[in-house]
Amino acid sequence: MASSTNEESVSETQSGKKSKKNTNQVDESQLFTVPDGWKEPAFTKDDNPKGLLEESSFATLFPKYREAYLKECWPLVQKALGDSHIKATLDLIEGSITVCTTKKTFDPYAVVRARDLIKLLARSVPFEQAVRILEDDMACDIIKIGTLVRTRERFVKRRQRLIGPKGSTLKALELLTNCYVMVQGNTVSALGPFNGLKEVRKVVLDTMKNIHPIYNIKTLMIKRELSKDPELRLQSWERFLPNFRHKNLTKRKEPKKKTTKKEYTPFPPQQPESQIDKELATGEFFLRESVKKRKKMEEIKVKQAEALTKRQEERNRAFIPPKEKPVMKKTNKAPSEAKIDIEAIKAKVRKAKTKKLGAPSVNPVPQTTPAYDKKKKNKG
Length: 380
Description:
Part of the small subunit (SSU) processome, composed of more than 70 proteins and the RNA chaperone small nucleolar RNA (snoRNA) U3. The chain is mainly α. It has helices at 2-32, 67-82, 110-122, 127-130, 152-163, 168-177, 194-208, 213-227, 275-282, 289-317, 342-354, 371-379; strands at 57-61, 86-91, 96-101, 139-144, 180-184, 187-192.
């Protein structure tokens, strides 16, 4: 009886665990989908009626060429930041912009958005686009690309590749990610939704790593089409996405002399023999000095004699005449004596005598008597 009750309790616990797992899976799947038309409620003064306790500020520098543009649009910047009670100051002497909170500021995140706004303005983003950062669903990303490539020429080429001919590549990227992208100097400024900013950063970094942006744009186009299908929304898209392999076209030059590594041995190489060891082996070590000198002199003389003979041979080479080729006499072969047929020759001669000399005309012209001969005949 006890065993049966234990089995029932185990089965109940297992079924409870399974049911919990199923509920968790359902909850997770529901988190992936956001209902259409849903929007996060805006942060109002009622959410924070007492305001902020401390004042916080941010400052950024801007280049000299942006001074004229910032002067023109500064009243618009102050008006846009005044809605969220943020104070902005433009210092043309130091070349800096400062934003800070006031006593009336109720949104604690408003100063962070104001900081992003002045950063974008300093990076040559026009005011019409930069103001969008004050919206709730907007974010910005400033990507530094100046230190990603070593040589300056290569950096300029890859940056131009990101922009494309007449800005076509950048425009395609903006349409696919719903972001505004601005390439200026050593930075790329992007403004848009969070998902789009992730894609923009990936494309920019891959382009600087010598991966053409057209490959990433193709994958983005495929993802855009797949996201429209509700059945494929929760599935993996790896089977649909293309796999682009990096082809290294420049082959590495192989060295002319290839060195083969010797097999590794734990023992050290054998120590080379010293001069004393060689003399001991040959027996010269035990000879007298006079005998050693005599032997050395003999060796030197032998070497000198060999060198002399070699030198003499080299000198004599110039006086050795080259071998002439034997002259072949042309011999005209005598014609083979053929039997002459005398009777045939006689017959040919007879025929030639009977025939008139000169070839006969093909179309013989009829002989016409002149007109004065006819008159003479008539008179006669």
